[in-house]
Amino acid sequence: MVYGVNDMASAVPAYIVPRRDPRTQSEGVVEGYAQTALRWPAQPLARRAHGPSELTRPRLAPRLKASGANLAGQGGTRALGQLIDVRVSVVDEDGAPLTGAMVEIWHCNAAGKYIHPNDSNDAPADLNFYGAARLITDRDGRIDLRTVKPGAYPVPDSGGWWRPPHIHFSVWGRVWLSRLVTQMFFPGEPLNERDAILNAVRDPQARGRCIARFVPQGGNALVYEYDLVVRGRNAAAELP
Amino acid sequence: MKRLVPTAEMTLGPFFPPEFAAGANDLAAGVQGEAIEISGRVVQADGRSLDNVVLEIWQADAEGRFDNPAFSGWGRAATDSSGIYVFRTIRPGAIQGRAPHINFLLLYSGLMRQLQTVMYFDDSPDPLLESMTERSERLVAKQEGANRYRFDIRLRGEGETPFFDD
């Protein structure tokens, strides 16, 4: 049942989005994260064939606009906290860079407070910090973000769970099914070892790839590198 | 050829920036086709309505095309404190053997990764809808007016919305 997409034999391999691997992708009810038991479906997820509806690329413009790449500000309006540069690379499963991909980024301030009004954490806002950016990858699939390192914060009503410092990423890949929303962690953080979200990724290597690499440099900001791999292969193939 | 492992998806969390979700739920403005409104409530297992759930949609244009440069086909809405989302869009056409439908993607705190589902306008023949057998009715929106449809989503529990692995 492929809705006629692959009916015509072709020398060009079809664009494919392989299935997720449960070792490298968490899902379901996660121990230590109570809301998963109220929100993840109890019924098994249904499988379906992929056709044009699933394997075409959403056009985000003109609804989403890019912003600046500096959340830290400068001079008298610099945000509080440790300056960091995050060098992000976006590729597909073949390692081919995604040019012109939209990437959304959000994180809390250095004290562990989000700009969102629903954040009840008793930590101070920073008037010089607005933790949301929307960037477009260059021809090599890269973006550079200047910001301040986010703080850790306690999760309400969780029995003492603290989120380690992390940055949220949202990226669109080549097709509808390539959508990727995830979180980037920082190396050497003791809270990483006990975070219910990071440790729900069972495979140690896959978990390790969720942690940015520290790159020693001489500048005034700490530099980190982070790779995002979106789902899908055979980008040269004709999309249905 | 080498194959890289896709980055693990993780939960959206509760604090998705309000301005990221604002103003992206109207796909109909200036577009040819039959304008419609789709709204619904998103609830969890105990029936509680969920605030700031992010829903994204992807659909064909009125002729069933995904490559119409005059129609983006993509939109995003976030639920309000009553769990309600609203999209304004156009009714999609049929697509290569499939009935008119709209793809939905849900992101939220407590979901370790995205959930995918599909909204249909009626029970016209469609291979995916038919494959859902007794649960297929949960994928058909309720028509509430000439151009208004209701598509409620229950993440878990009695009357749970069917979701797709991909």
Notes on the structure:
Chain A has helices at 36-39, 204-208; strands at residues 83-91, 102-106, 132-136, 142-148, 153-154, 162-163, 166-171, 180-185, 213-215, 222-229. Chain A has 240 residues and is mainly beta. Chain A has one domain (36-229): Protocatechuate 3,4-Dioxygenase, subunit A. In chain A, the strands form 3 sheets. Chain A has a 4-stranded mixed β-sheet with strand order 4-1-10-9, with no helix packed on it. In chain A, strands 3-2-7-8 form a 4-stranded antiparallel β-sheet, with no helix packed on it. Chain A has a two-stranded antiparallel ribbon with strand order 5-6. The longest helix of chain A is centred in the C-terminal third of the chain and has 5 residues, at 204-208. The radius of gyration of chain A is 20 Å and the shape is globular. The two termini of chain A are 15 Å apart. Residues 1-11 of chain A have low confidence and may be disordered. Chain B has 166 residues and is mostly beta strands. Chain B is built from 2 helices and 9 strands. In chain B, the strands form 2 sheets. In chain B, strands 1, 4, 7, 8 and 9 form a 5-stranded mixed β-sheet that branches. The model of chain B has no long low-confidence stretch (mean pLDDT 95). Chains A and B meet through helix 1, strand 8, helix 2 and strand 10 of A and helix 1, strand 3, strand 5 and helix 2 of B.
CATH superfamily of chain A: Aromatic compound dioxygenase
Terminal CA distance of chain B reads 24 Å
**CATH-level-2 architecture of chain A:** Sandwich
CATH class bucket of chain A: Mainly Beta
Q: Tell how many strands the DSSP assignment of chain B holds.
A: 9
Report the β-strand fraction of chain B as a percent range.
25-35%
Number of helical elements of chain B: 2
CATH level-1 class of chain B: Mainly Beta
What name does the CATH topology of chain A carry? Protocatechuate 3,4-Dioxygenase, subunit A
How do the strands of the widest beta sheet of chain A line up side by side?
Answer: 4-1-10-9
User: How many β-strand runs of chain A?
Assistant: 10
